[in-house]
Amino acid sequence: MSKTNNNKLKTLWEILLVSTRLGFTSFGGPVAHLGYFHEEYVRRRKWMDEKGYADLVALCQFLPGPASSQVGIGIGVMRGGVLGGMTSFLGFTLPSVIALIIFASVLHTFNVENAGWINGLKIVAVVVVAHAILGMAQKLTPDVQRRTIALLALVITLLWQTTYTQIGVILLGGIVGFLIYKQQTSQEDEPLITHFPISRRLGYISLALFFGFLFLLPVLRNLTSIEWIALFDSFYRSGSLVFGGGHVVLPLLEQEFVPTGWLTEEEFLAGYGAAQAVPGPLFTFAAYIGAVINGWQGGLLATFAIFFPAFLLILGTLPFWDELRSNHRIRAALLGVNAAVVGILISAFYDPIWTSSIFAPIDFALAAVLFTMLVYWKLPPWVVVISGAIGGTLISYF
């Protein structure tokens, strides 16, 4: 084996070890993940400089999909090419995927959907999403115009609860954002100084695949009755249309799988609560859903389908990031999209999360305690999850 191949294998092995350790230890959601990445990849290992990391984070926040996972993929790509990106993704993602597939198996094997601790996990979901909404609303709706966009998105998605409504609201938010902010977005960003080892040709191919799957999968789904194509379409579309972080995927997945009868509201919310207890990206919640529907094979299919668009987008846009980030029209539209996302998330907070979790004053009391633990006492999410499970068990005896 040549020295070059040895060096490539050594680099890939290093990426795998570092990303897997982060996959086992990165609790706290996407913002915390970016902090872990910065500490490990920029400060400790110096795989990239501060400016390059900031540019990569900006790109991933600009794109739909799981921002922290896309940053991890991008770092892997810059370190080891496309294989490095795949390796980084696998290391960071598989620990939580395996944990949630096991949880889904336990849930079905022992038929514990109505156990007290499961109800406690559903209340944890209330707390976590409420916290996410507060943070996102402060950042993404700082003025009256964007708060109005969020309000309209909330009202529309509450009154017409379909997946296509959510997609339409996102598009409408982008149009309104463009009309309002097209003259206000600044041009102060510096040119991108990091060189990515991806050709424009690969970028074009990746973007073509992204849009090709997005439009062709629904057609195939309607023409056939193959279940795995339907599953792949639902997860791929959810992963393609999420702006604003992992919590925003909740309403899309809920609309795709609960009304269709693939899983119950209780199963959905129990899994969402459990997803807070594991490290890594929240998008791995899809592994739980897939495993509930079709065992571990379904879990792996769901994981691949929901992250595949993120991978295609990061490979497709890295070569063109300079042009995208300087386009004030795109940036203006994104301001409206992000505001609409806040409204969609508030709608999902009410239904299904609140309506399926808070039934009595004691449920609300537990939610208040857990919220205080998470937001004001700054306790780790896994402590809040365990406390919720214990609290739900105690409530079941009253």
UniProtKB/TrEMBL annotation:
The record's subcellular locations are: Cell membrane
Membrane topology value = Multi-pass membrane protein
InterPro entries hit by this protein? Chr_Tranpt_l_chain, Chromate_transpt
Please state the protein's primary subcellular location: membrane
Q: Which UniProt keywords apply?
A: Cell membrane, Membrane, Transmembrane, Transmembrane helix
Q: Where are the transmembrane segments?
A: 12-36, 89-110, 116-137, 149-181, 201-223, 300-320, 332-350, 356-377
| PANTHER family the record matches | CHROMATE ION TRANSPORTER (EUROFUNG)
Q: To which protein family does this belong?
A: Belongs to the chromate ion transporter (CHR) (TC 2.A.51) family.
Q: What is this protein called?
A: Chromate transporter
Q: What organism is listed for this UniProt entry?
A: Virgibacillus sediminis
